[in-house]
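Field log, afternoon session.

UNIT: design team B
ACTIVITY: writing a sequence onto a fixed backbone
BACKBONE:
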């Protein structure tokens, strides 16, 4: 799982580097009290930055600019073309300098005896470690990763306001809300929480040096009491796959064949009906779709995996995409401002296929979502769509055993938070 934490400011990363870069550094700086000891201050262990003695270097910083690459950066520090080419050749197997990101800060260490010469270049791509290019003697590069520890944490709370706000009130990263909404999108309508709905979640948190919080490594399990319905979900990776999916307490996959809607954020402005007054044509006619209003440019998602069988324009539909999902189901998405797929292309569930617009017969930005079952247009909101698949029976016993303590922690957290 991807990390759920924004990167820290340079000052924090620098503080970490000083803390962890003191390879063998003795922090006791008090001189011995023995009167016969004549050691000078110079004999004390020196502080280090990224493993290099601070007293030996002048420290400078250089912010990576848009369009920068290793060549441009080194040229700013008086490297000629030959030196740049040699450096790139020597470090390419140890340092992926093609992934330098604009806005990141480079730390430059220059010798106090020759301040015009760059001895050390340090790049911190994130708060998990740093890359070093050492130009002294023979140029070489290496990477240092900070020691990471993991701690499991279970928290319960009540929904009040948004899910992110509710998580934050309980001391959790508010960014966790996005990941929970993605995992439970097929079971919980996150726009229809009511005051008093409850949640609980068990996460594995990541720390540097046991003390500095980095982010959430994985959601192990979660619970929602949603409009009177209890929903449990637990993460699980299949033995032959690195992909993590969510399953309920019985081993049933939470992800279903179709998303509830082609937009993440929306409001329904017109439902499927056999008689509607058309706002443009000014006459009564059938409306064989569901209109979801959203701002111009909002991503439109394929509600299920399938193959694009049409992608084009008509006077009524505007820009549209039609997808065949299998022999039974087909969907269509109308009035796009932009089409992002081509006919014949295979798409995955949740993939962005276009953007909301008002092309064709439309009075404002929205997507008209149309749904076919066995060749007949039907109301998708009233269909008994294919349900989740059960876990492979060979994997189920191990899964049930794994989630048992997680579910227990969730239930205990709920009882502690809501004793009555």
């Amino acid at each position: 799982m991807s990390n759920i934490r924004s990167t820290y400011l340079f000052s924090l990363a620098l503080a970490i580097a000083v803390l962890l870069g003191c390879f063998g550094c003795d922090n006791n700086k008090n001189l011995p009290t023995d009167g016969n000891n004549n050691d000078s201050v110079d004999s004390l262990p020196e502080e280090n930055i990224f493993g290099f003695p601070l007293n030996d270097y002048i420290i400078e910083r250089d912010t990576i600019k848009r369009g920068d690459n290793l060549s441009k950066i080194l040229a700013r520090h008086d490297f000629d073309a030959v030196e740049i080419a040699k450096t790139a050749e020597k470090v390419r197997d140890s340092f992926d300098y093609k992934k330098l990101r604009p806005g990141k800060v480079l730390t430059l260490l220059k010798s106090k005896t020759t301040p015009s010469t760059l001895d050390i270049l340090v790049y911190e791509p994130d708060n998990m470690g740093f890359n070093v290019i050492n130009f002294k003697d023979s140029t070489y590069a290496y990477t240092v990763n900070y020691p990471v520890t993991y701690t499991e944490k279970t928290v319960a709370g009540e929904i009040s306001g948004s899910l992110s706000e509710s998580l934050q009130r309980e001391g959790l990263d508010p960014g966790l809300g996005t990941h929970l909404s993605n995992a439970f999108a097929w079971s919980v309508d996150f726009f229809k929480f009511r005051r008093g709905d409850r949640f609980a979640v068990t996460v594995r948190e990541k720390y540097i040096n046991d003390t500095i919080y980095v982010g959430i490594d994985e959601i192990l399990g979660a619970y929602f009491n949603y409009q009177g319905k209890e929903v449990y979900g637990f993460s699980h990776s299949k033995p032959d796959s690195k992909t993590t999916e969510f399953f309920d307490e019985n081993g049933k996959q939470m992800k279903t064949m179709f998303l509830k809607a082609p937009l993440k954020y929306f409001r329904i402005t017109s439902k499927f009906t056999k008689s509607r007054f058309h706002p443009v044509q000014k006459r009564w006619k059938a409306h064989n779709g569901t209109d979801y209003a959203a701002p111009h440019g909002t991503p439109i998602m394929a509600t299920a995996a399938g193959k694009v069988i049409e992608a084009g324009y008509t006077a009524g539909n505007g820009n549209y995409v039609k997808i065949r999902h299998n022999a039974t189901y087909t969907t269509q998405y109308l009035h796009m401002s932009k089409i992002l797929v081509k006919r014949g292309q295979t798409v995955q569930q949740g993939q962005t296929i276009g953007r909301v617009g008002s092309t064709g017969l439309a009075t404002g930005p929205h997507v008209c979502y149309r749904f076919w079952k066995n060749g007949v247009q039907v109301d998708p909101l009233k269909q008994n769509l294919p349900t989740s698949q059960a876990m492979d029976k060979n994997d189920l016993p191990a899964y049930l055993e794994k989630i048992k303590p997680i579910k227990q922690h969730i239930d205990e957290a709920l009882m502690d938070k809501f004793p009555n």
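LOG NOTE: Residues 327 and 396 are 30 Å apart (CA to CA).
NEXT ACTIVITY: expression trials, pending approval
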